[in-house]
Amino acid sequence: MSCISDPLALDVGGMKLKVPVVIASGTWAYEAGMWADDLTRHVGAICSKAITKDPCPGNPGCRIWETPSGVLNSIGLQNEGIDRFIDCRLPDLKKRGVPVMLNVCMQSAEDLAYMMDRIAEAGDMVDGVELNVSCPNTDHGCMSWGVDPALTAQATEMARRRWDGPLWVKLTPQAPDIPAVAKAAESAGASAVVTANTWLGMAIDTLRGVPVFSRRVAGLSGPAVFPLALRVVWDAAGAVKIPVIGCGGVDGPDSALAMIMAGASAVEVGAALFGDFKVLENVHEGLLAAVERWNVASLAELIGRARRA
Length: 309
What we know:
Blueprint: E1 2-3, E2 10-12, E3 15-17, E4 21-23, H1 37-40, E5 45-47, E6 64-67, E7 70-73, H2 82-94, E8 100-105, H3 109-122, E9 128-132, H4 143-146, H5 149-162, E10 167-170, H6 178-187, E11 192-195, E12 199-202, E13 204-205, E14 210-211, E15 217-221, H7 226-237, E16 244-247, H8 253-262, E17 266-269, H9 279-293
Parallel strand pairs: 4-5, 4-17, 5-8, 8-9, 9-10, 10-11, 11-16, 16-17
Antiparallel strand pairs: 1-2, 2-3, 6-7, 7-15, 12-15, 13-14
Helix pairs in contact: 3-5, 5-6, 6-7, 7-8, 8-9
C-alpha cells in the first residue's frame, strides 16, 4: 500500500484507488445510469455482483427483510455465470471509467479453476478479483471455504496460480479465528483481505408463524453490524502486513474514518446505499475533511492511527 498522488489516492492491494471507498458486491446495479459520474466520482472501484461458474437462479422465496438497524438478505448468488459476464457484461462495464473488482464466488475447486482461467484469458479487461469465500446464502462452497484457515489458503493458492493481478480475499465473520484466516490468505498470495461479509441472522414471520427465508438463515448487514465489523478490522489488521479493506455497516464519514483508524486501507459501502446514494459523496468529502482536520498530507497517515494511540 502506498500513497500515489492526491490526499485520498491509495494503492490498495494492487488497485489504484482515487478514493479509498469501494461499492460492495451485490449492492450496485449494472444499468448505465447507475454509473454516471455524479455518483461514481466518489468511489475508487465497484465490486461486481457475485459471479459463479454457471448461471444461478438464486434462492426461492423472500430474499430481503428489513430490520430496525439493517437488512437481512438471502439472494443466493443469482447471476448470469462467468462466461456471459466476461463475454457480454464486462466489455460494457469497462467503458464506464470505473475500476471493477470481479467478485468470484467459489462453490468447488473445479469451479474456481475454470473461472480464474477465464479471468486470466480476459487479461487487461479485468482490473482485479475479489475472491468470495464468505457468502452465507448458499448450501455449497463459499463460506465453508472461508471459516477454515487451511481451506482459505487452498482457495487463495488456486486463484493465485492462475491470476497474477490484484487478488482481494473477502473473509467471513463466521470464522472462529479471523486473524488466522487472514494470515492464511496472506501467506497463500492474497494482495489484500476484505473484512468482512454479512453476519448470519434470521427472521420469523409472526403472522404465518414460519421463518421468513427458505434457508432459514440470511446475511445481516447495515448499522447493526458496524461495531462487530470494526472489531474484525482491528483484529485482521493486527495479524497481516497486506492491506485490509473494512466492510460492514459503513454509513458515513465517521464510520469510514473509524475503520481506517483501526487499520483499514479502504472501506466498502453496501447496505447504506439502499437508503441514500449520497452516502458516497458524504464519505468522500468527510475523508478529505479528516485529512485537513488532522493536519496530515494524506489519508495514508491516518491508517491505523488508533493503534498508535
